[in-house]
Design a protein that fits this description.
Radius of gyration: 21 Å
Number of strands: 0
Distance between the termini: 44 Å
Order of helices and strands: HHHHHHHHHH
Strand content: under 5%
Number of helices: 10
Structural class: mainly alpha
Helix content: 55-70%
Amino acid sequence: MRSRNPVFSRRGFSRDNGYAGFNAAPQAGGPAVATQGNPYAQPAGNPYAQNPYAQQDLQYGAPPQAPATTGRMTMDDVVVRTASTLGVLVVTAALAWALLPVDDANISRSYGIGIGAALIGMVLALVQSFKRKPTPALILSYAAFEGVFLGVVSSVVDNRIADGAAMQAVIGTMAVFAGVLVAYKAGWIRVNRRFYGFVMAAALGFVLLMMVNLLFAVFGGGDGLGFRSGALGVVFGVIGVILGACFLALDFKQVEDGLAYGAPREEAWFAAFGLTLTLVWIYLEFLRLIAILNSND
């Protein structure tokens, strides 16, 4: 299974390394399964073939649940890297909020800086997505520029449309994250080939529809086809949040597989990067929903 996330989809964070053997749980002590299903123990075409721990697992048939060893990615590594990335994003967002006023005299300049930061962040994200190894400086730089954009947009919505919108969006994002994590760990969400295919198809249709709406808005003025305002805007905002929740489930699956199969510690930066991308998506969808609901009052 490959995640919709371009970060994880290029890595070996998957038990099946594709679609073959989706739900084929590895048997403890089974070297044959390790060779077929463990991307960290495949000499041929394995991006982590240099990982000595993967080779040990292949030789001795160590179960994927074996205790973490120095050099392997652990949950603590994922948590610390994700906290670092989100911390940089939050700090730059707060600075942008405080230093870039959105009153009538300065809103054009502040919004221009925010859009410029978003474009730079997008370029950095694409560069990192196509790199075979994570670059912490690149990931943290993406978080910094993305934070500037979020700070400006959040300030605009909070100060000019709906007081308290930013905090409501943060609470909504945290609630979705916690809810999906609990549901995933409890087994209520089963990430398999069908789930992945549905999410990918829905996400592709959603993005294409929003791109068409944006083109109509650019050339025709207003909100284009109206998919981002009024009743339709609310519907598509809810769909966007649901898709974000599905993306989180896919990301959790990738992290779980990376931990189970002994991914190198540096892969924790990829996990942090992917989770940050998804959380930003969910936050922006919540912020848009709040803005639409308050605009209709």
